[in-house]
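Project standup — Tuesday

K.O.: blocked on the structure for the chain from last sprint. Re-posting the sequence here as requested.
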Amino acid sequence: MDLMIVSPGNNKVIYQSLAAEYAAIEPPIWAALLAQGVRSKGYEVKIVDQEAEGLTPEAIAARVLKECPRLTAIVVYGQQPSASTQNMTMAGEMAAAFRKQAPELKTIMLGGHPSALPGQTLRETAVDFVGQGEGIYTLLDLLAAGDLSDPTQWKKVRGLWHREGERPVFTGVAPVVPEKELETALPGMAWDLLPMKAYRAHNWHCFGHPDRRQPYASLYTSLGCPFKCSFCCINAPFGRPGIRYWEPEWVIRELDLLAARYGVSNVKIADEMFVLNEARVARLCDLIIERGYRFNFWAYARVDTVKPELLARLKRAGFNWLCLGIESGSARVRGLAQKGRFQEDEICAIVGRIKDAGIHVLGNFIFGLPDDDLDSMQRTLDLALRLNCEMVNFCSAMAYPGSQLYQLALQRGWPLPAQWHDFSQHSYEQLPLPTGKISAGEVLGFRDRAWQAYFTNPAYLELVRQKFGQPTVDHLTALTKIKLSRRHAAQEEVV
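H.V.: unblocked you, prediction finished:
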């Protein structure tokens, strides 16, 4: 075999008691994209998805040993860009298991976090190489090398970090795949190499029919984001803000395959800016409608990019959920986080238009952005309660590697989580950022209490009952009984 791709995950640590029933299990998009890209050039490839298969690092190492690939790639991503970092603990354990059981195997680590901190990743983990960038050119260059044990071959590989003695050495930046070459360099996902029956949708994605969370798939229709939000690390593998699109005809072929071969109806569109290009989205919706598919989609959007005239078409195509990055109830806090110039009345108006189109809204809110204090965080909670979205994500601001907040935290000497998995929003040792006005513990404690206040709010539960039925209310009521254990959370009351 030429290449074994391993996707690390550790749900029980990352999500605590939410992992068993409530968390999604998503296909590893980048692992499958890279596998298909490499396979299209004639190489033999396999994938091991740790999260889906529940294997220990030792069991994965034993499987890799049995296959004896020329190269093993640990591809570190997650359910969203920031989740790459929280999977680094398990990625490091995998690399150590490979080194212990089969030191002769050549290993490389790629992904969002390794691209953000490539030299540090090489120092901290027992891999031979780290790939900085998207990874496809780096993998193809390595596989084209005659002898991976020959250091003279490494200099020819684009985007590669390796060691000379103990010193990290970089061969230079690999280019991103040009938009016009996406369909040939990354020609789809290797669905047949994944355990497709193992994946399940988020619980909220299937409100009203929680017994139908499987089968499930997620995919990109574009790569990157043109915006520069201070808390986001999505562009770490790409080097700079920007966006590249696959054509709608390419996307519909992927959806055709998911529907016909795997019976998938629940689909996440993982693009950060899915609705940005109106003409492209309209064309894709038309292709879906023409085929008569009944997909249950969710996709990301942004308050200032949602086009009201597109909403009816999105709904007809099966886009039942849009996830909006609202972030804060304070225009000042949003502005300093480079999250657009929209005002609260604009937020309320677009949420209302989306709901009027029959599309459910998942609102994303962040507590502890750099200019936050207790009053502005309370305004964020008040705005969330006022909007009464069908679902919300309440997050604490984290200094994810690859983001501007990470650089700010280093400059100001703010403490960061001691282990990579504690960058998870749900871990026991999660340590968010302080703001200069309030402590990290106050941010985390407020976030957890705000979450409880939202999901026990009578107005919200009545909305859920009317839209999705009493069983979904009962599901949420059971969820609120699960209390995350937190080491660092302060215990003050929400106003």
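K.O.: great, moving the ticket to review. The first helix runs from residue 11 to 15. The two ends are 60 Å apart (CA to CA).
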